[in-house]
Design brief:
Layout (H helix, E strand, L loop, with lengths): L1 H16 L4 H4 L8 H30 L7 H21 L3 H6 L1 E5 L9 H16 L4 H4 L10 H6 L1 E5 L5
Antiparallel strand pairs: 1-2
Length: about 170
């Protein structure tokens, strides 16, 4: 009887050494905090302003656009949205996130690719909602234990520090 109980104890010990839930598998990740995400956003903004100055402003001048909101402005907004959505969807990173070493991952599966729906929900709807009440949804990153803003919570994503492969 003692031998049998020892066998059960040993096998349960083996099982307990593995993560018992998916959430525990995320304990290996280091969540990216508020300030590094601000840095990544500033770098993305610098890139997009550069594109605006190099491409869209000369295009406005060449076309003689004087309206407050023209077709060129619509193209610029579309470019900005596609930049955020497509890069995040394809790589989990924008250029700013690449430079700062952070990545967006799905909360549903470790290191999985984000779905198109998740990215649209996060980058378009979630970020709009995060901005509305004085940016409180962005500041939420500082208070949330997993460093998730409202846009991350809505889309079920995390932003983590990317590990460098040696």
């Amino acid at each position: 009887m003692n031998e049998r109980s020892i066998e059960r104890y040993d096998s349960s010990e083996q099982l307990s050494s593995e993560p018992s839930s998916f959430a525990e598998s995320f304990s290996q990740h280091h969540f990216a905090g508020f300030w590094i995400r601000v840095c990544a956003t500033l770098l993305d903004s610098l890139f997009l302003v550069g594109i605006s100055l190099l491409i869209f402003n000369p295009l406005r001048r060449a076309l003689g656009v004087v309206d407050y909101f023209s077709m060129v402005d619509l193209l610029e907004v579309l470019f900005n949205v596609l930049y955020m959505v497509l890069l995040t969807w394809w790589t989990g990173q924008t250029l700013g996130k690449m430079i700062t070493g952070i990545r967006v991952i799905s909360a549903g599966q470790a290191r999985s690719h984000l779905t198109g729906g998740q990215v649209l929900l996060r980058e378009v709807i979630g970020k709009t909602l995060s901005l509305l009440p004085f940016g409180l949804g962005y500041m939420w990153v500082g208070w949330n234990p997993q460093k998730q803003g409202w846009h991350d919570l809505i889309a079920k994503t995390y932003v983590i520090w990317e590990r460098k492969q040696a």
